[in-house]
Automatic annotation (TrEMBL), chains A, B:
One of its GO terms (molecular function) is uroporphyrin-III C-methyltransferase activity. Keywords: Cobalamin biosynthesis, Lyase, Methyltransferase, Multifunctional enzyme, Oxidoreductase, Porphyrin biosynthesis, S-adenosyl-L-methionine, Transferase. Pfam families: TP_methylase (PF00590). Residues 4-212 form the Tetrapyrrole methylase domain. The lineage of its organism: Bacteria, Pseudomonadati, Pseudomonadota, Gammaproteobacteria, Pseudomonadales. InterPro entries: 4pyrrol_Mease, 4pyrrol_Methylase_sf, 4pyrrole_Mease_sub1, 4pyrrole_Mease_sub2, CobA/CysG_C, Siro_Cobalamin_biosynth, Uropor_MeTrfase_CS. This is uroporphyrinogen-III C-methyltransferase. Belongs to the precorrin methyltransferase family. PROSITE patterns: SUMT_1 (PS00839), SUMT_2 (PS00840). Its EC number is 2.1.1.107.
Length: 267, 267
């Protein structure tokens, strides 16, 4: 195989949400570098590749970004086909843009393969359409992670009339709630908190914005999770988790009252 | 096979951007209802299914939404497994939420399969990361289509500091430009216009916002196209189309000046 780096979106977790192109890239890989949040089940598509874990997770021991980049470069320069597997999509909060640019500047061929992003998959599994005619004409994906130093205008996000999907927000719930309320978003705005989007262990809980902290604490919300904020969360039909996604756990939450946790009640 | 309706995202056009789950759904389908914008190459995964074209396109003869829904219902009630193939993702401007709700209210089992949305794939093929640390901490997807009667707050969209991706905007370029400029977005803001995202016929062109109409006219921009608006369009490395996506057409646009059309120069 030719030397090349593929930056591949592994999707949100469900191994079936991988694209055919990602499968093809994995089949060609001599080296696969895999992030923490990627479901290892996906490695079934590269049984002969050397797999290197290069996870990064807030607060834990992690692999420095510069080291990951140099490692990709070294393997590619040695003539190997490298796949870097990233959770979700490589260019939605995945640093794919930075890595592609850095490698290309060093003469390495790079190809990016899109993946399904966790916010989309999580919402879908909860029966929440991110856009809905007459309710929401768009969707905004943002990260609450503060190592990113680009600005966020909460006032504009609250006023945008788009569904808001917030990644990496679990540690910053108080700030998110306070900023959105201060920006004029009604306290009654429904929020879905979705943990482990699309995985068998997916859990989801709904709350009005003004009760966000209390509900999250009761629910024991943990990372990784996405927040979906907007009227689509309460839209007719939007409250039924897709039962087949949850490994046989039967769910029927269509008639849940607003504010009722959508947690997996059956065990 | 059991009666069921799958609402399946066919992705942006490139048949390799289909998910494994979509392939599985197609393999089970007795009836496949396919939208206009879906690449028919995807039908290779359902050689034995009955295929029904139910396209809708602005300005052309089209299949009424109510008819499509009744058709899905009829086939499902006759015990058939139905796949409704939609361009991109079913719940991002795809009416998936409405259709799922309508069918579920009539006792039909529905499963939604996510797809890669055209705005994401088009940007990736042009080397544009939708988010980029220090430049853009989020991305907003909106439709310019006006049959959707939910509000859009252009002022908020311009102020959000997220990358803006506009679907179905070709017929409304003048309005989009005027609204964003009136909302205070700098005229120098770079815009990428991407036609036929991810398909061999993909074409892309870049313009500062203030020259949008003129450049689009010179480029002869046609539907379907997405607009990507924000500084990521000019980010280092963001201007190189992924050559492998374009069926052997060699492209090297890394050194293009801002404002230079990114059109396929080679034929």
């Amino acid at each position: 195989m030719n030397a090349k780096v593929w930056l591949v979106g592994a999707g949100p977790g469900d191994p079936e949400l991988l694209t055919l192109k990602a499968v093809r890239a994995l089949g060609q890989a001599a080296v696969v570098m895999i992030d923490d949040l990627v479901n290892p089940a996906i490695l079934q598509h590269c049984p002969d590749a050397r797999v290197i874990a290069v996870g990064k997770r807030g607060g834990c021991r992690s692999t420095p970004q510069a080291f990951i980049q140099r490692l990709m470069l070294r393997h590619a320069r040695q003539g190997r086909c490298v796949v870097r597997l990233k959770g979700g999509d490589p260019c939605i909060f995945g640093r794919g843009g930075e890595e592609a640019c850095w490698l290309q500047a060093r003469g390495i061929e790079v190809e990016v393969v899109n993946g399904i992003t966790a916010g989309l998959a999580g919402a879908t599994q909860c029966g929440i359409p991110l856009t809905l005619r007459g309710i929401s004409r768009g969707v905004t994906l943002v990260t609450a992670h503060t190592q990113d130093d680009s600005p966020l205008n909460w006032q504009a996000l609250a006023a945008s009339a788009t569904t808001l999907v917030i990644y990496m927000g679990v540690a910053r719930l108080a700030d998110i709630q306070q900023q959105l309320l201060a920006a004029g978003m009604p306290g009654s705005t429904p929020v879905a908190m979705i943990e482990n989007a699309s995985l068998p262990g997916q859990r989801a809980c709904r709350s009005p914005l003004y009760q966000l902290l209390q509900r999250a604490a009761e629910f024991e919300l943990k990372s990784p999770a996405v927040l979906v904020i907007g009227e689509v969360v309460n839209a007719a039909g939007a409250l039924e988790l897709q039962p087949q996604a949850l490994d046989g756990v039967a769910l029927d939450l269509v008639f849940a009252q607003p504010g009722t946790p959508l947690a997996l009640l059956a065990q």
